[in-house]
Amino acid sequence: MSTTVTYQGIGASPGVAVGIAFVLDARRLRTPRHKLERSAAAAEVLRFKTAIELSDSQFEDLKKKLGSEGEEHTLIIEAHRLMLHDPMFIVEVTRLIKEDLINAEWAVRRVRRRLKHQFDNLDDEYFRERKSDVEFVADRVIRNLMGEVVDQELEVPPNAIVCGHDISPADAAMLVRSGSVGAFVTNLGGHTSHTAIVARAREVPAVVGLGKAVDALRNGDVMAVDGRRGLVLVNPGEQQLALFRETIRQQQLDEAQALKTAELPATTTDGHRVRINGNMEFPEEIPSLLAHGAEGIGLYRTEFLFLNRSTPPTEDEHFESYKQVLQAMGDRPVTIRTLDLGGDKVPGRKFEREQNPALGLRAIRYCLQHRELFRAQLRALLRASVHGNLRVMFPLISSISELREARSELEACRSELSRQGVPVGKRFPIGIMVETPSAAWIADRLAQEADFFSIGTNDLIQYSLAIDRQNRDVAYLYRPLHLAILRSLDSIISAAKSANIPVAMCGEMAGDATLTIVLLALGLEEFSMTAGQIPGVKDIIRRVSRTDAVAVLQQAMAFSSAEEIERFIKAEVDRRFYTGAA
User: Fold this and answer.
1) DSSP 358
2) Global pTM?
3) Rounded Cα distance, 21 and 186, in Å
4) Is 269 helix (H, G, I), strand (E, B) or coil?
5) What distance in Å separates the CA atoms of residue 102 and residue 114, rounded to the nearest whole number?
6) pLDDT given at position 582
7) What pLDDT shows up at residue 266?
8) How confident is the model at residue 307 (pLDDT cuts 50, 70, 90)?
9) Which residue segments constitute the domains of the chain, with CATH numbers given?
10) Selected residue with higher pLDDT from 230 and 380
11) What is the DSSP letter of 147?
C-alpha cells in the first residue's frame, strides 16, 4: 500500500479534483554547442531566421486549431509571436552568431538566460512570471533548429491530473480544449502564470509553485487536488479520497444550483441589496462572468495591453480593447482601471532599477510623470465611452493632489477631442482605488472629489501591515482579518457612505466567501471577483441577514489578535454555511 504524500503549493484556480497523474515529458532540452568557421556564420544566421519563421507559422496554426473556443488564449499566443519577432531578441542572437562564432542553438540559449535574469529582477509578480514566456519561445526556436517535433498532440485520459515542471500556454490551451483535464499541477508558476490564467478562464482547478514535487510523480499515481487551498495529495487513503469525492459532488450540485439562480440579485434575507461584479483581464472572460451572474465589471485590468511587446500600445489599440468590452457588456457598468505599472515594465522605455519598486514610481505616479502615455489611454477611454456604461478609476492614489491632477488631465483630453470633432460619450463616474494607508486615512476628503471608491485590499493589506505578500518568509503575516485592516475598511466605507458615493471592493477579500459576512457587516455595497467565486459569495449573501452579520462582526472585533478574530469568524461561517469541504 502506497504512503500518502502531501504537497503544499499555490492555489492558482479554485476547485477540487481527483484523478490519475498524467506527467508531461520534462526532459531538459540539451542544447548543442560548437564553434563556427567565420565563413559559416552567414548560413547559421539564415538557419536561425528560418527557425523564427517556422515558429511563427506554428503559432498561427495553433490559433487556427484553437478556433473560436480558444479566443481567451489568442492574446497569449500573439504575445509570444511579438516576443519571437522582438528586435532585441533577433539582433542579439544574430550578433552572437557573427561575433562569437557560435551555433544558433547556443546563441538562443545565451540570450534566453540573459532575458530570464532581467525578468527575475522585476518586483511585480505578474511581470516576473513572464520569464516563462521567454523560455517557451526560446525553447520552440531551439527545438525547430534541432528538427525536433513541437506541438505534439497529447492523448490525455479523462479527468487526468496534468502535471509538469511548467506548462506552456499553447499546451494548456489545447489540453483544456480537449476536455480531458481534471486539474493542473506544476513545479513553477504563481497566481499570474499562464497556466493559472488559462485554468481560471476555463474553471479547471490548478496548484502551481510546488518546487520539485512534480519530479517525484509517476504516470498512474492517484492524486487529489484542492485548487483553493493549494493542496495536493499523492496516493491518498480511501477516507481522504471519499472526502474529496464528496466535496466534488457537493460542488457540482452547488454550481448547478448557482447557475440556475445566477440572474437573481444578491439580496440578504432582510432585504439588503448588494451588487456582484466581475474582475477581468482578457475580454474573452466576459461570457463566463455573465454566466456566473456578474452584474457588471468591477475591475478591468489594462496592463495586459503592455505585455511582451517592444513599444507601448497605441491609442487605437487601447480604444479597440475598451470598445470590445463595453459593447459586450451592453448597459452593464464597466469599471476600467488606468495603467498600474512601473517604468520597469513599460515597453520601449529605459529605466533605472529601483530598490523598492512597490513603493516607487508606479501606477498613477508613473502616469503623471509620463503624460503622453497617460493621455493615449485617457483619450481612448473617452472615445470608447460612446459604446457603453463606462466608469474609470485611478490606482494607487495617496493624496488629493494626485486625484485632482489625474482628473484635470482627463478633462484636458476631453476638450482636445471635442476641438478635433471626435465623438465622446457623456460624462462618466471617476473613482479611485483605495489601496494605500494614506488614502484610507483621508478617505473623507477623497470622497468629496471622487465619484466612487473601489478598495484594493491586496495592496492595502500589505502596505498597512508592512509585509511583502510575495515573500514566503513573511507571507504568514498577510492577515485580512487583522484588527487594523477591519478598522481601516470600516473607516473607508463609512467615509464613502457619509459622502453618498458608491463603495466597492475588487481585492482578493471580496471573492473569499468565508469573509462575505464580514464585508456585509461593514456595509460594502459592491463586491468584484473572478467568475468562479461569484456563486459562493452570492449564496452566502442570500442566506444571511445583514443584522446578523453586524452582530457577528461586533463580537469578532472584541478580540485583539488576528488569530482570535479568524478563529471566531471561521467558526461562525462553518456553523451557518458549512457544506462538507474536504
Assistant:
1) G
2) 0.70
3) 12
4) coil
5) 16
6) 40
7) 95
8) low
9) 5-24+154-240 (3.50.30.10), 38-146 (1.10.274.10)
10) 380
11) T
Per-residue pLDDT, 408: 97
The residue annotated as part of the active site, out of 163, 367, 413, 506, is: 506
CB-based contact 83:31 (threshold 8 Å):
no
Sort residue 230 into left (φ over 0), alpha (ψ -120 to 50) or beta. left
- Helix or strand or coil: residue 337? strand
| Residue 306 pLDDT level (bands cut at 50, 70, 90) | confident
Contact predicate 160/182, CB 8 Å: yes
User: What per-residue string of b and e applies to 3-28 under the rule 16 or more CB within 10 Å gives b?
Assistant: eeeebebbbbbbbbbbbbbbbbeeee
d(CA 195, CA 456): 24
Average pLDDT, the chain: 86
Choice among 194, 318, 387, 482 that is catalytic = 194
Q: Tell me the C-alpha distance between 457 and 436, whole Å.
A: 9
Q: Which amino acid is at 306?
A: F
CA atoms of 450 and 399, how far apart (whole Å): 12
Q: How far apart are CA 510 and CA 263, in angstroms?
A: 19
- For the chain, what is the total number of helices (H) and then of strands (E)? 23, 17
Three-state secondary-structure class, residue 112: helix
The 3-state DSSP class for residue 545 equals coil
Average pLDDT over residues 183-211: 82
Set of cell numbers at residue 106: 547556443
Residue pair 284/72 in contact by the 8 Å Cβ criterion: yes
Task: Indicate the SS3 state at residue 392.
Answer: strand
**Cα torsion through 48, 49, 50, 56, rounded to 10:** 110
Measure Cα distances from 502 to 40, 273, 371, 521 in Å. 68, 13, 29, 16
DSSP SS3 for 481: coil
Sequence-separated (6 or more) residues with CB below 8 Å from residue 451: 391, 429, 430, 431, 501
Is 194 a residue of the active site? yes
Residue among 304, 252, 255 nearest 283 (CA): 304
Residues forming a β-bridge with 11: 207
The position carrying cell 517604468 is 343
- pLDDT tens across 32-85, in order? 888 999 999 999 999 999 999 999 888 888 777 766 555 556 666 777 788 888
Angle between helices 371-384 and 400-419 (to 10 degrees): 60
Distance in angstroms (rounded) separating the CA atoms of residues 234 and 219: 11
Q: Taking the alpha carbons of 90, 92, 97, 102 in that order, is the dihedral positive or negative?
A: negative
Asked if residue 526 lies in contact with residue 277, where contact means CB atoms within 8 angstroms, the answer is yes
Strands laid side by side in the 10-13 sheet: 5-8, 231-234, 222-226, 16-23, 160-164, 181-186, 206-208, 10-13
